[in-house]
UniProtKB/TrEMBL annotation:
InterPro entries for this protein: BCAA_transport (IPR051010), Leu-bd (IPR028081), Leu_Ile_Val-bd (IPR000709), Peripla_BP_I (IPR028082)
Keywords linked to the UniProt accession: Amino-acid transport, Signal, Transport
Pfam family, one: Peripla_BP_6
Record's signal peptide: 1-23
Record flagged with keyword Protein biosynthesis: no
GO biological process, one term: amino acid transport
UniProt record similarity statement: Belongs to the leucine-binding protein family.
CDD domains documented for this protein: PBP1_ABC_ligand_binding-like
Protein name: Branched-chain amino acid ABC transporter substrate-binding protein
The Leucine-binding protein domain, residue ranges: 25-367
SUPFAM superfamilies: Periplasmic binding protein-like I (SSF53822)
Taxonomic source organism: Sulfurifustis variabilis
């Protein structure tokens, strides 16, 4: 009898300890592609989340409680992203979601978050529609797709002789690709630039030569390329250059043009290709320099846009949690975090963060979009295997090479 009581008491005690520990952990859910074609991006965010969590917990956590990020794999599949988000909310009882990776997945996650009344902080997906549906539970720190081309727009407007007379625009037929292409073409048309090619293609295209044949026939001043997939960015650029296209500039938009593999796979063919991105870091900012070195010391690589976005997201969430007066009631705590996010006014390594409602470049009515997003856009250029900021001048690491020395224009 005593033995049975002792075992029962021990089991009850262990259950109490485990349950108490779990209750002390504030859970953040992150649907990410950990397998499949986008797995390298999932790895980037996993590293960033882990580093931020370690730092925050080492500094005392959130009001004495530890935080954790639960990553679940959606394999870069939109329907699975919805399933994963719902599981994280209903089964894992996370207090908030972040992540998503691509816009198609984020659209699905946002709908689930809104329906199940769980805050979702978008850290990278950029299609305007994500924060243009009026969803009160969805927030976004990073710039929208229509903001991506802002640094490019400023460059061609301000740099002497940079405004093209004609341009070819090639983009993947995802919500991300269409958003950026539409934004870029709208601006170019407003400047009376002739769009000689408007070409959409499916993700993971195996042959861009038919498209490039048409583009070569029109001999545009600029070739603008949008790719959510790194493989598309690489192959598109390779086929364009191998087929002898020699515009004044090749300009890439999307994560595929800003990752190390772009230069590694293309070698000299990547030289002088522009990447107009949501963020590329200000090398003149001591905080950015310190973060770069800290990340490199831990992982042996220097961070780019994705890592910084993920790292900043965890700090934004932790800040909101600290101000939310959490009670342990999951539903109430989710709403408390949502209300705290509405009052966020802070600075991260990614930049200033304050959520608000305003109209985007194409007139979309944003809800809970970072009002500082337009300040983050940067134009960078591949130079001898390194992606260096060239515009705006305040962020520049080197002078811009323009027009491309290989150009026949």
């Amino acid at each position: 009898m005593d033995r049975r009581f002792s075992i029962a008491a021990l089991v009850a005690f262990l259950f109490f300890i485990t349950g108490t520990a779990a209750a002390q952990t504030l859970k953040i859910g992150a649907p990410q592609p950990m397998t499949g074609p986008d797995a390298p991006f999932g790895d980037k965010f996993q590293k960033a989340y882990s580093m931020a969590v370690e730092e925050i917990n080492a500094a005392g956590g959130v009001n004495g409680k530890q935080i954790e990020v639960i990553i679940e794999d959606h394999q870069a599949k939109n329907p699975l992203a919805a399933t994963v988000a719902e599981r994280l909310i209903q089964q894992r009882e996370v207090l908030i979601l972040t992540g998503g990776r691509a816009s198609g997945q984020a659209v699905e996650i946002a709908s689930i978050a809104q329906r199940l009344k769980t805050p979702y902080l978008v850290d990278h997906p950029s299609a305007d529609i994500i924060t243009a549906k009026g969803f009160e539970w969805v927030f976004r720190n990073n710039p929208t797709g229509s903001i991506y081309p802002q640094a490019f727009n400023k460059f061609i407007s301000e740099a002497p002789g940079a405004m093209p007379k004609s341009a070819a625009v090639i983009y993947d037929n995802t919500v991300f690709g269409k958003t950026i292409a539409n934004s870029a073409m709208t601006f170019l048309k407003s400047k009376n630039v002739n769009i000689v090619n408007d070409e959409a293609y499916p993700v993971n295209t195996l042959d861009f030569k038919p498209i490039m044949t048409k583009v070569r026939g029109n001999n545009p001043d600029y070739v603008l390329m949008v790719a959510v997939a790194t493989t598309d960015a690489i192959l598109m650029t390779r086929h364009a250059k191998e087929m002898g296209l020699k515009p004044r500039a090749f300009v890439g938009f999307g994560g595929g043009f800003g990752v190390e593999d772009f230069a590694k796979q293309l070698g000299p063919l990547s030289e002088n290709v522009f990447s107009s991105a949501a963020w590329s870091g200000n090398p003149n900012d001591p905080k950015v320099k310190a973060f770069y070195e800290k990340f490199n010391k831990k992982y042996g690589i220097y961070p780019k846009e994705h890592e910084v976005e993920g790292y900043a997201a965890i700090y934004i969430i932790a800040d909101a949690m600290k101000r939310a007066k959490l009670t342990g009631d999951v539903a109430k705590d989710r709403d408390a975090i949502r209300r705290a996010l509405l009052k966020t006014d802070m600075e991260t390594v990614f930049g200033k963060v304050k959520f608000g409602n305003y109209k985007g470049p194409l007139g979309d009515p944003y809800t809970n979009q970072n009002v500082n997003s337009p300040e983050h856009s940067v134009l960078a250029q591949w130079r001898k295997g390194k992606l260096l900021n060239v515009y705006p001048k305040a962020n520049a690491e080197t002078d811009v090479v323009f027009p491309d020395p290989a150009s026949k224009k």
